[in-house]
Design brief:
mainly beta; 65% strand; elongated; Ribosomal_bL21
Length: 103
Amino acid sequence: MYAVVKTGGKQYKVVVGEKLKVEQITADVDSQIVLNEVLMVADGDAVAIGAPLVAGASIKATVVSHGRGEKVRIFKMRRRKHYQKRQGHRQNYTEIRIDEIVK
């Protein structure tokens, strides 16, 4: 059984028991969260596709940790103009563990 859920402007395929890193969610570590924006639920041959969301479906998850991702380096340059700009960015994330998929 798996589901496709939307959180933080991105879509993730989730399976019970897996851990994934999503955009930062304001929740304490070891707290339960519910993701309500479920786009699809598949259980063997039974597939429920939402238009745009599956009615009554939700994902129950536990917050494992918070952190910051790898640094992304941005370098902008204009040739022959003596323009160079360096910048870096580290995105915050929340690691969650999927506990249950409710249809």
